[in-house]
Amino acid sequence: MNNETGTLKSADNLASAIGAVGRAYIFIYLNINLGTLDILPDWVGYLFILSAIPTISLWEESMGLLRSIGFLLAIYEGAEWIIQLFGGHADIPVVSLIAGIIGLYFHFQLLTNMASIASEYGLTGRSENILKLRTANTVLQTIAMLTMQFSARFQDAWPALVMVVIIVILTIMITVSIYGLKKELLSVQ
Amino acid sequence: MNNIWEFLVMTLTVSLAAGLILVLKALLSDKLTPRWQYGVWSLLALRMLIPVAVSNRYILVPIPLWIETLKALCESHLSSAYSQAFIPLESPWFPPMISSAPHSITDWLFVIYFAGVASSLLLCLVSYVKLRLLIAKAYPLSEVNQSSIDDVCNKYGLKPCPAVEIEGLPSAFVCGIIKPVLVLPAGTVTDEKIILHELLHLKYKDALQSVIWAVFRALHWCNPFMHYVFNCIGNDMESLCDRRALELLEGEERRDYGKILLLMVNDRYPRAFGTTSLSNGGKNIAKRIACIAHFKKYPKGMALVSVCIGIMLLQPLFFGSEFHGVASSINDYSAANSEMILQKDLASTRLNRCSTMAGAIDAYAKGLIYENGLYLAAASPLSEQEKLYEQMCASLDDSWIYTHVENNLGARAFARSPNPDVSVSNPYEVCNIKQSASASDEFQCQLVIYSTSNDADALPGISIIPLSVHMEKGSWVVVPSGETEFMEMDENSWGHPRGFVREILARTPMSTYKGVGTNGYITASCCTFYNVDNTVETQNDISWFLGSSFSFNENPVTNAEFEHSDMDFNITYTFTGDREQLKNISYVTLENMFYDSTADIPSDPEERMDDENFAPIKESGAGSSSTGWSYRAETFDNHEWNGTIRDINSGGRYYPKRDIIDALKQVSASGGASLPPVENPEVLVARVYIDGFDTEYIISKEVSRDEQ
Q1: Cys-Cys with B567: which of A6, B70, B591, B653 at CB 3.0–4.6 Å?
Q2: Taking chain A, what is the end-to-end CA distance rounded to the nearest angstrom?
Q3: Interface residue ranges in chain B relative to chain A, Cβ cutoff 8 Å
Q4: CATH number at residue B690
Q5: Interchain contact, A153 vs B319, CB within 8 Å
Q6: Are B641 and B588 contacting, i.e. CB atoms less than 8 angstroms apart?
Q7: Model confidence, pTM
Q8: Is the dihedral of CA B664, B670, B675, B678 positive or negative?
Q9: Cα B140 to chain center, whole Å?
Q10: Is B469 within the bounds of a domain?
């Protein structure tokens, strides 16, 4: 059994799981639409993360806390994707708000765990980089949500648009950083 | 809070906010620390302290609209003393007040609610007084317990407080806010960890917080869900105190702390007003023990995300979403085919009153044009709402949709473009807005609707409706202040509707100027025209290539502003000399110019002659110079001059939106001038040339209505 755990708890597996997280960010934050079809659906991204959780939990126990809300977020995004696919518009403000809030926590915790793993392997620079991106992402997501709420109130779309552009750039940086972590873990091995 | 409806709005809104927080807490229960789990309730406390706005904004679901509708449906069949069907609810805030004797069932329900609040608060007070009396007779602290308190205070840097012992107590507690007392069970040695827990309650003023929650509990005494919420809040407060204690304790002490809680599982929960206690009932203690077991498992470094989650909740809990007061589309009102839908639509207009003068006139004008009772209701005083409701109900008998009301214009509006500056055809204009002499927030104006007569053979014309616009409970409302006139437009006027309107309005001008010369006199009347921004942009799939299309907005815009305004001066020179001379006159020219003050008139009368084509000219025509001088020339080759010559001068007085808004602000601040401009021009200078000879130079000034 110990042997089995030891096999599972290899840097290879960890790097593979972290690669899944990197792929997840591409699906979650980038949207490419063909008509009503989003070919990079968010729910696929959450499924990638859910698939990586059991492996990463071996290093980071608190990662296990994300399983339940990751599952909820995947269902929410899946439902929204199907409704959109058939030309509908899922707009239940309470549900969107709750999904937004637990999504904020989810990514904060996920990136904290990524940074912690980097630190565990002595990759201090990478760990600090991920923590900075995590903090920036959390603050910007909060500002973006407020901006969108208030843009709707004042019927002004440009602040929300500016925030979307900033978040897309940040997401690319996060994805690059996570893939960087994967690469460094493999080289450490 | 003055009636049961306001209580319902308040308690349901607060319940929704609490429900949202509970859902989030459930989702994040094992992820965020007890500090966040209790701290997030501060948002609910703030929500309860701030009055719930009974307006077009709502939290999560439009409760104010639902309650306003329900109130209208119920109260229209009752004669309540505390609320009326068509008077909108006030923003509820405590304390509840009984203003007079109850008349109806809803009044009695409010009296019962009021009695419940009073009883709950009284019970709290009585139990607190009884406890304080008991404490007054309590035993002094034993040496052992005193020594324990001193040890805890020294070890953890906590502030001591007076302490006593009472026999038969199941557990220690702290009582009081201003002069708190730590009460311990007599005859036993109280564990230092229990003392630590109580002193931490004292340090963080939890007794004060429990008093505040108890007052809120009393205000929502008949809402079982809120009782559940307040119990959760109490438990979260205890869990947070446990957490604080565990952070101070070390190793085995933490396990012992859990054991102490375990011993209390079967205790009765002695909750009392103004107190805090370690024990809060067996079921809750089980949850706290689970939290203690989880003590080290909460992820670290969660402060930032905890704060961000709180910030994200601010907007939905405090600002809410907006619903549109009046039916969002002109076609939507056909849906009002039941009393309930009609009452809901009317309720939405009551909650979304007109916030600007232009918005009120716009809603009223469109109400008349489209014969829509809802639009009229949005701009009408509250006293008119019931009458409008009855008219709309009556329209069902005439096979009309519910919202139909007769406009009594005897005419049907049509879209004209009376002003070339208006980008889309506009079926109405607002003219001559004047501040009332009696009230600073009351204005008189004339609404001009371009319309056709109901008689198919008749020519189109204009309907002029005199209006009074004033503030009512912070919103603008419109009432007709005179008889509506319909005037046919002749075929010549058809292409120039503004000229026709000007002629009509000259009979009741905004202001009048008069000046006398040697051979005649000048009279000038001034009219102002206002246009509301009613351009609506429509985009479709090819707009990115062909651009958007623009059309007239058929829906009322309750917060509209005047897009622009302009002034017309209708100037007439009347010759009073020898009538025989008229036969020999072959051409006459009238030049005129308005100045804001007499001091602005150039000393050199020739200074205006900056245009070589300017007057006097020997052919009929009109024009203006770049300096603002206007002229009109008439020749009399085939007929005799009748002794009058008339010119229209806009005086360059065109006011964009910003100027009007500024002028309105000045009016409300000073309570003075007319609109716009803030001041009418002081003088009109006119020069008359007869047969090319400079005959008259007349300075005219504004005259009062009596002098006219």
Answers
A1: B653
A2: 23
A3: 20, 23-24, 27-28, 30-32, 60, 297, 299, 301-302, 304-305, 308-309, 311-316, 319, 321-322
A4: 2.60.40
A5: yes
A6: yes
A7: 0.77
A8: negative
A9: 60
A10: no
Cβ proximity of B520 and B579 under 8 Å = no
Query: pLDDT tens digits, residue range B438-486?
Result: 777 788 899 988 876 656 666 677 888 999 999 888 889 999 998 888 8
Domain that holds residue B509: 504-527+562-703
For B525-575, the three-class secondary structure string (H helix, E strand, C coil) is EEEEEEEECCEEEECCCCHHHHCCEEEECCCCCCCCCEEEEEEEEEEEEEE
Residue B437 lies in a domain: no
Biggest CA pair distance of chain B: 128
Q: Is residue B660 part of a domain?
A: yes
pLDDT along chain B (708 residues), means of 10: 89 92 90 88 90 68 87 88 86 78 91 94 90 85 87 88 84 84 84 87 89 92 94 89 85 78 61 67 69 67 87 82 53 57 85 88 89 88 90 71 69 52 67 80 86 64 88 90 81 70 76 88 87 75 65 83 81 86 86 82 63 62 76 85 84 67 66 55 86 83 69
B23 contacts in chain A (CB < 8 Å): 98
State the Cα–Cα distance between residues B698 and B658, nearest whole angstrom: 34
Q: How many domains does chain B have?
A: 2
Asked if the Cβ–Cβ distance from A93 to B321 is below 8 Å, we say yes
Residue of B nearest to A99 (CA): B24
User: Which of B299, B301, B309 is opposite residue A65, by nearest beta carbon?
Assistant: B299
Sign of CA dihedral B208, B213, B219, B222: negative
Alpha carbons B565 and B621: distance in angstroms, whole number = 26
Give how far B516 is from chain A: nearest CA, Å: 55
With vertex at residue B623, the alpha carbon angle to CA B617 and CA B626, rounded to the nearest 5 degrees, is: 110
- A65 vs B30, B60, B305: nearest CB: B30
Cβ distance B312 to A105 less than 8 Å, yes or no, reads no
Averaged confidence pLDDT in chain A: 84
Domain borders along chain A are: 2-188
Relative to beta strand B181-185, strand B163-166 is parallel
What is the structure's pLDDT at B21? 94
Residue type, A69: I
CA distance B461 to B514: 30
Candidates A91, A94, A147, partner chain B, best to mutate (most B CBs within 10 A): A94
Q: What is the distance in angstroms between the Cα of B587 and the nearest Cα belonging to chain A? A: 59
Longest C-alpha distance within chain A, in Å? Answer: 61
Q: At residue A165, does pLDDT exceed 70? A: yes
Among the partner-chain residues A100, A104, A152, the one whose CB lies closest to the CB of B305 is A104
- CA A162-A165-A168 angle, to 5 degrees, is 150
Query: A73, A95, A101: which to substitute to probe chain B, counting the most B Cβ within 10 Å?
Result: A101
Render B376-391 in DSSP notation, one character per residue.
Answer: HHHHS-GGGHHHHHHH
Provide the pLDDT for residue A1: 37
**Is residue B384 a part of any domain in this protein?**
no
Distance (Å, whole) CA B591 – CA B688: 6
Q: How confident is the model over A36-57, as pLDDT tens digits?
A: 777 889 999 999 999 999 999 9
Which of B298, B316, B334 is the endpoint of a domain?
Answer: B316
Sort B330 into a burial class: Cβ within 10 Å, 0-12 / 13-18 / 19+. Answer: middle
The answer to whether residue A162 neighbours chain B at the CB level (below 8 Å) is no
Residues B408, B392: Cα–Cα separation, whole Å: 14
Separation of alpha carbons B648 and B623, rounded Å:
10
Strand ranges for B227-296 from DSSP E: 275-277
* Alpha carbons within 13 A on the beta-carbon side of B598: 5
Q: Convert the pLDDT of each residue in B115-134 to its tens digit.
A: 999 999 999 899 888 888 88
How many residues would you count in chain A? 189
